[in-house]
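Bit of a strange request maybe. I'm writing a small parser for structure token strings and I need a real example to test against, not something I typed by hand. Could someone generate the tokens for this chain?
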Amino acid sequence: MSDRRVKRTRKRGLKTVLVYVLLIVACFFAVTPVVWTALCSVRPISELYLGKITLPRVLTFEYYKRVLDQTMFISYFLNSVKVAGLATIISTFIGATAGYSLSRFRVPGGHQYGVFLLLIQMFPPVLLVIPLFLLIKGFGLLNTHLGLICLYPTLTLPFTTWMLRGFFDTIPRQLEEAAMIDGATWLQSFLKIILPVSGPGIATVAIYSFLLAWNEFIFALVLVQTKALRTLPLGLAAYMEDFGIRWDLLLPSATMAALPMMIFFMFMQRFLVKGLTAGAVKG
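Reply from user aminoacidic:
Good idea to test on real output. This should exercise your parser:
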């Protein structure tokens, strides 16, 4: 028996070591481009063409000053905050109400509708570029932030609805029943009982929705033509000119564009992990 236990312990130890090694390798490949971009943004451009992977010999923040003073980076940044923030609020609210309805109310075809939402995620969003362009143009929202704000929730709602439905399934119905015995309505129990205990799930779908809207490029490129209305991805793409790439502008801009999301993830990490695991249990 002791030999078997020793063998089992060794196997578990080897599996644990293997898992950590794979995680370290994955983190290395994920973090290295971000770190390298940040390092290159504070080194002279002449050092980028040396062909050697070395640490910066001289640190300079001249390019950051140039981006802030000579480009429309701040305008692009504020546009992205506005569009992504409002699209996230709309997507999270609609996804929460739809997910709650699918979780609590048994209607004919409800399960099939939930599966249909999941199947929608299999199709690439680029297939919708032309139909959504014609739809946005028909409503007179072409070349406006409102067009993007109305469009982005359509890309995130299938995931947010499905994820929150699974999260709401893990919440005992007795909480709402007790509230309704005390005189609360379905809406009051949803707003005052369910939503407060659904913080991790709400945070998960909010992060997903915000990330998609923050990084989205194709739809913004098609729907926005005015320079002053560009979001950050469009602004960064403008630094890749016909006869070369403005590395002195692109590298610091990309670093500053990624920094807010990195800080946001640091504070929301525990909610994200808890929300993903809870929402994946049922559905």
